[in-house]
């Protein structure tokens, strides 16, 4: 521009925001903040990191606000309204820049299931319970190496398995499932489902009561949960291998609950003429946002789709190097 004038000033605020709205890569927004002090201030003041994050990861729109953890004994500074507002803008920019960094990387993904919540049905409980799916194992004792549904006459009857993750706020990249194989009367039976679908979210009940008795299958009903993400359906192969189902993008699981829906039955057992689904192992691979960020459900209006607070501790943040 002539006379060294700022492009953003020349375009004006509304047009500049519209131009930035076309960015798809969080790294491009970080680069924009490095152009000049005025560009950085423009990005921060207009919440462009949050806007991009919401576009790439719609789950973040579920956060109703940000809760800052104040260490005991810390004295609050007497700031002007404008200073407080700018400090909050900077805080939000750092937080959403950090979240954005997870959207362009899958490094550090680990198995993150903590507990079983329950199954829609279980044949021969507890020998064939959902707990058998937590660890990969050799099928030496077939009755105790997998979860099995009850038999059904109708192959369209679905089943579901529900798990609690280690973290109440984590990006999930991939879910892996291994159907079970039975060797019976010289025939190989692989009890996969036809399709699989995943739901991520949180319980409407206090988290301390979310780990249910495995016989209380009614506790995994959808009405007891708020699902912040529902995946497309994936076909499941009728193979006795650990099958990988990669989500279309890293998905932010808010609330640590993952529901695996098994849709459609393939194998009818000759012994009783009923259709079954049997699963050996389930693995959810994800990356936690702890210790920098966590979810606070204390102000959630349970049962009414209330929002969740995104909380962070500035003392922890100060000890961690974050870009942006």
From TrEMBL:
Superkingdom assignment: Eukaryota
Q: Which InterPro entries match?
A: At4g00755-like, F-box-like_dom_sf, F-box_dom
Stretches assigned to the F-box domain: 16-53
Q: Which Pfam families match?
A: F-box-like
Protein name, per record: F-box protein
Organism the protein comes from: Rhynchospora pubera
Taxonomically, what lineage is the organism?
Answer: Eukaryota, Viridiplantae, Streptophyta, Embryophyta, Tracheophyta
């Amino acid at each position: 521009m002539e006379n060294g004038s700022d492009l953003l000033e020349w375009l004006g605020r509304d047009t500049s925001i519209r131009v930035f709205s076309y960015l798809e890569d969080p790294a491009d927004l970080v680069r924009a903040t490095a152009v000049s002090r005025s560009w950085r201030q423009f990005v921060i003041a207009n919440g462009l990191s949050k806007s991009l994050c919401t576009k790439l990861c719609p789950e973040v729109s579920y956060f109703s606000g940000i809760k800052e953890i104040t260490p005991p004994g810390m004295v609050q500074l007497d700031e002007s309204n404008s200073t407080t507002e700018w400090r909050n803008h900077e805080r939000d920019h750092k937080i959403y820049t950090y979240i954005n960094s997870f959207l362009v990387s899958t490094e550090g993904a680990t198995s993150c299931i903590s507990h079983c919540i329950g199954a829609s049905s279980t044949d021969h409980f507890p020998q064939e319970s959902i707990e058998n799916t937590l660890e990969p194992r050799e099928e030496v004792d077939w009755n105790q190496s997998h979860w099995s549904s009850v038999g059904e006459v109708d192959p369209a009857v679905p089943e579901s398995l529900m798990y609690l993750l280690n973290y109440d706020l984590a990006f999930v990249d991939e879910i892996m499932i291994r159907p079970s194989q039975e060797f019976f009367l010289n025939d190989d039976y692989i009890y996969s489902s036809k399709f699989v679908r995943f739901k991520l979210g949180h319980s409407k009940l206090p988290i301390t009561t979310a780990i249910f008795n495995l016989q209380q299958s009614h506790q995994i009903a959808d009405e007891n949960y708020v699902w912040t993400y529902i995946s497309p359906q994936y076909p499941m192969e009728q193979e006795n291998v650990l099958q990988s189902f990669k989500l279309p993008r890293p998905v932010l699981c808010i609330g640590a609950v993952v529901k695996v829906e098994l849709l459609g039955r393939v194998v009818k057992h000759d012994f009783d003429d009923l259709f079954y689904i049997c699963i050996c192992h389930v693995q959810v691979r994800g990356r936690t946002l702890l210790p920098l960020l966590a979810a606070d459900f204390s102000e959630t209006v349970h049962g009414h789709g209330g929002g969740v607070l995104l909380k962070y501790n500035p003392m922890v943040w100060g000890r961690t190097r974050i870009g942006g």
